[in-house]
Amino acid sequence: MLFHFSEDPSIQVFKPRLSASFPNLRPAVWAIDQEHSLHYYFPRDCPRVIYWKGESTNAGDIERFFSDSNTDKIIVIENSWLERMCSTKLYVYTLPEESIDWFEESKTAGYYVSHQEIVPLKVELVGNLMEKIIKENVELRFTPNLLPIRNRVLSSTLDFSIIRFRNAVT
């Protein structure tokens, strides 16, 4: 199953749009797979760094990033987003899989794209975002500034997804 998350519960048709993260990509509708959908249990503009143990992650990075955790995935957001995490109403749209293709450039992040309009199959309220994240057996961390953890993750062998970093405190 493929999904799209939005704070707008009234979208009837998703229209392809340009991406700030992939400016060379022609306009697209973005979707996320089930495995990575928890990456989107956040207010739309919330910057976050998500990292996890991947097939190519070396033992040194596992020790460095996970020695104080018993989970395989950690999500880090900035302190200033806590109130919005608790008050945002977020909706999940289920999308038809036809005409949506895996986005190879995203590697392990679970992104899919379509270059045509997509009519959603259904829309549902996600509910309490913090509760949904906690139920996924991941660790959610807060920090005043994402830049240090982003730089550490980028120079590691971890699998990761860095979302909306342009909105981060720098």
How would you describe the overall organization of this protein?
- This protein is an alpha+beta fold and 170 residues long.
- The chain has one domain (2-167).
- It has helices spanning 59-66, 82-87, 129-135, 147-154; strands spanning 2-6, 29-33, 48-52, 73-78, 91-95, 101-102, 111-114, 122-125, 139-143, 159-163.
- The strands form two sheets. It has a six-stranded antiparallel β-sheet, with no helix packed on it. A four-stranded mixed β-sheet has the order 9-4-3-10, with helices on one face.
- A hairpin with an 8-residue loop joins strand 6 (101-102) and strand 7 (111-114).
- The protein starts with a strand and ends in a 7-residue tail after the last strand.
- The mean pLDDT is 94.
Summarize the structure.
It contains 4 helices and 10 strands.
Spans of at least 5 consecutive residues whose pLDDT stays below 50 are: none
Helix and strand pattern: EEEHEHEEEEHEHE
Q: Could you estimate the helical fraction of the residues in percent?
A: 10-25%
Round the Cα radius of gyration to an integer and report it.
16 Å
Overall pLDDT, averaged?
94
Kindly state the number of beta strands.
Answer: 10
Taking the sheet with the most strands, its summary is: 6 strands, antiparallel
Oligomer: single chain
> Count of DSSP helices?
4
Q: Roughly how many Å apart are the termini?
A: 36 Å
Instruction: Decide which structural class fits the backbone.
Output: alpha+beta
Proportion of residues in β-strands: 25-35%
Give the overall shape: globular
Biggest β-sheet: strands ordered side by side in the sheet: 6-7-2-1-5-8
